[in-house]
Amino acid sequence: MTSISMTTKPLRPTLWIEQRQVFTWDQTRLPFEREVICLENSQDCARAIAGMQVRGAPLIGAVAALGMAMAIREALAKHPGCYREAGWLESLAKALLATRPTAVNLAWAVGQVSASVNAILQASTIDQEPPTEELKADRVAYSRPNRPGNAIADSMASALAEQAWQRALDLVDDDRNCNAAIGMQTQNVLLKHARGQTASRPLQILTHCNAGALATVDWGTATAGIYQLHAQGIALHVWVDETRPRNQGASLTAYELADAGIPHTVIADNAGGLLMMRGLVDAVMVGCDRVCANGDVVNKIGTYLKALAAKAHGIPFWVACPASSIDMSCPSGMDVNIEERSALELSQIRGLPVHPQQTLRQPILVEIMQEGQICYNPGFDITPAALVSGLITEHALINPFKLREAFA
Ligand code: MRU
User: Fold this and answer.
1) Ligand 1 centroid, distance to 389 Cα (angstroms)
2) Is position 289 annotated as part of the catalytic site?
3) Which of 49, 55, 63 to mutate to test the pocket of ligand 1 (most atoms within 8 A of CB)?
4) What atom in ligand 1 is closest to the CA of residue 380?
């Protein structure tokens, strides 16, 4: 993985591809340093997801799809006959699937790439029974030195690698289009259902975490409609939850809204209830990492409390939700593996030193608690379907209790 400083490049799209290499922002360095990372192989992709340089469910899905395609190419370049081995795709997927457990987009995207490769294999007349002797010979031949990098000698193997790559590219494009479509649905929903007197003042939207362009290939999910309404000249203002412990709201959402010139104000995570009580919030708009078959929404820790407060004040609570985030195989939120993250995310914080004499303004990490404190840091929570006004998908606004009918 290489890093490149690119301060003048537009923020969106947040992922792009040049000569089969994947470029995206290093989100651990934002908002202080605008650096691009180049993901050159499947290991880079897995590392970037695990280290949260790449984050947000749809972007994780896109990078995982590209990473899986790279893993397939790497394996076929090394052993062109490996596609004859049972379980070869599953073993290639392991490293990517182990990175982050909660966002279903990751497993979904890896599954999509694998399925497209399997479709070619099934359609082909090739004998897929493992011809052990042939495989052994193949391994010997291709482990010889001086064989060029990822060049694939076998025509079936190169067709499979190409298919995987094309499917991954399609998924990247789909994400952009899907978010634009979610934006169109959101415009209607926000304008129709927002509470409050919006003619005399801007539409007030509260959001949690970063479900913006940085969490996707482009547009964002929760922010797509906001970008589109702003472009049409509709006056709006976004309350941005800081989103402890990693501060995706303050560091990423506020950063990208500022970049797009959208009026916004960062608030402490605990301020939302008071703002709602004072009538300063017309709608809550969040993204999701997984929506379960019963309509429960799994999203960044703290989402649930916002949903409770919104319910108490009769404020609509909308979830922007690409179909790829809906997991009909998962009965309820209680069945989801909620990622438990390092205590260091709570006990340490990254920022710029503010000392006036400080000339070298490099970001630093500081401890914010006494050494040895015990911390517990679940990364996500579960918002029960009963608190969700609607799921805004790329296709339609869906009642969370009617998911089974919608996906029957
Ligand atoms: O831990 P993160 O930063 O990957 O969590 C991100 C969120 O919870 C987002 O709200 C969610 O992925 C939706 S992104 C469109």
Assistant:
1) 20
2) yes
3) 55
4) 8
Enumerate the β-bridge partners of residue 205. Answer: 238, 283
Give per-residue pLDDT as tens, 37-85.
999 999 999 999 999 999 999 999 999 999 999 999 999 999 999 999 9
Number of H helices, E strands in the chain: 13, 17
End-to-end CA distance of the chain: 42
Is the separation of the CB atoms in 300 and 379 below 8 Å? yes
How far is the C-alpha of 255 from the C-alpha of 367, rounded, in Å?
24
Strand-by-strand arrangement of the 290-292 sheet: 326-327, 290-292, 297-300, 380-383
Query: Which of these is catalytic: 26, 44, 174, 289?
Result: 289
Its pTM stands at 0.92
DSSP H or E run through 160: helix 155-193
The C-alpha atoms of residue 297 and residue 289 are separated, in whole angstroms, by 8
Residues touching ligand 1 (Cβ under 6 Å) are 55-58, 103, 209, 211, 215-216, 221, 248, 287-289, 299-300, 379
pLDDT digits (tens, 9 = 90+) for 175-227: 999 999 999 999 999 988 665 545 678 999 999 999 999 999 999 999 999 99
Tokens, residue 257: 């809204």
Q: What are phi and psi of 69, to 5 degrees?
A: -65, -40
